Amino acid sequence: MDANLKEHQQQAPVPAAAPVAAQKAVANYKGFVAGVFSGIAKLSVGHPFDTIKVRLQTTDSSRFSGPLQCVTQTIRNEGILGLYKGASPPLVGWMFMDSIMLGSLTVYRHLLRDNLFNPPWHPLHDPSRPLPSHGHGLAGILAGMTVSFIAAPVEHVKARLQIQYAARKEERMYKGPVDCLKKVYTHHGIRGVYHGLGATILFRSFFFFWWGTYDVFSRWMKDHTKMSTPAINFWAGGLSAQVFWLTSYPSDVVKQRIMTDNLGGGIGDGVRRFPRWRDAAAAIYREQGAKGYWRGFLPCFLRAFPANAMALLVFEGVMRSLP
Fold first, then answer.
1. Among 55, 70, 117, 248, which residue's Cβ finds the most Cβ atoms within 10 Å?
2. What is the distance in angstroms between the CA of the first residue and the CA of the last residue of the chain?
3. What are φ and ψ of residue 138, in 5° steps?
4. Rounded to an integer, what distance in angstroms lies between the CA atom of residue 231 and that of residue 237?
5. Which region holds residue 248: left if phi is over 0, alpha if psi is between -120 and 50, else beta?
6. Sign of dihedral through CA atoms 233, 234, 236, 237?
7. Angle of helix 17-57 relative to helix 67-78, nearest 10 degrees?
8. CA torsion sign, 133 to 137 to 139 to 143?
């Protein structure tokens, strides 16, 4: 009996993995919740910049000579609310998208660390070793692919609303996001709603540079400055977002051309011009040369820092405050 008791005492501590698993589940859950607040912050700061970016990306210089003229004409013809045109889909969409993106990013970080970069069964396993920067980049790619299935229809509807230039609603093809979604689905089905999905996934594969450099900047600032943690989140978030846009912008221009292309058919918006990604890319080069891939870059680049710096500040702050 003593032997059995001794054996039981030796085996009792083994099931300690359950609390660890529970802690990981809580950490993953926090990422999804904090992402909602990140989306609200991002849209509030960034949508006017995004409207100008999309309008410049989808027109030539005969309509707008540059971002300043685009801003002034939009406000003059449509009022200040014209800058927030198409904001309804991304308001809901960014809350949901950032929740999915940042929540799945948190999950993928844990999965990559525990199963690829620092697995517990490896002889050199160190529980305190963080995920390397390129691991954060890989997690970013996976999160980008995941959120693309939410982002594609949201960005598709938003883009179509943003290029409606008529000041009077009755002169516009779409009365609002619901009407746009309804018309696209009625005439083209779910495939029409997800028009531009492939281009969206390709664009978001550049999240590698965003989340990889976010980790690089965060570590550097922590080691070489005396800034507070929220300040590091703010600056690293803004700078890494600018790196992301420097690397991904041409693919975003092509994506916007695809999403605002005529769908044809019963919707009555004309004949489709870009059946493939390369058709849109070739059309941009043919019309404007290499500089066409950077049209609208300035408002996008200016938006990247404040919108994403605030979003990451809010996200990391909520992550720390949640129990």
1. 55
2. 44
3. -65, -40
4. 10
5. alpha
6. positive
7. 80
8. positive
Minimal CA–CA distance to 94: which of 311, 250, 241, 300?
311
- Can you tell me which residue has the tokens 């507070």? 228
Spatial separation of the C-alpha atoms in residues 197 and 230, rounded to whole Å: 35
State how far the Cα of 161 lies from the Cα of 7, in Å rounded to an integer.
70
Residue 258 has which token pair?
């695809």
Q: Which amino acid is at 165?
A: Y
CA-CA distance, 266 to 207, in Å (whole number)?
Answer: 37
**Dihedral (CA of 236, 239, 245, 246) sign:** negative
Question: Which whole-number Å values give the CA distances from 44 to 150, 218, 219, in the listed order?
Answer: 20, 24, 28
- Counting every residue, how long is the chain? 323
**Rounded to an integer, what distance in angstroms lies between the CA atom of residue 122 and that of residue 317?**
33
- For the stretch 9-17, contacts whose Cβ atoms lie closer than 8 Å and that sit 24 or more positions apart, written own/partner, are none
H or E element at residue 28: helix 17-57
Reading the block at residue 68, the tokens are 């300043």
- If you search the block for the tokens 């990391």, which residue do you land on? 316
Which of these, 244, 252, 262, lies nearest to 284 by C-alpha position? 252
Closest of 85, 80, 97 to residue 40, by C-alpha: 97
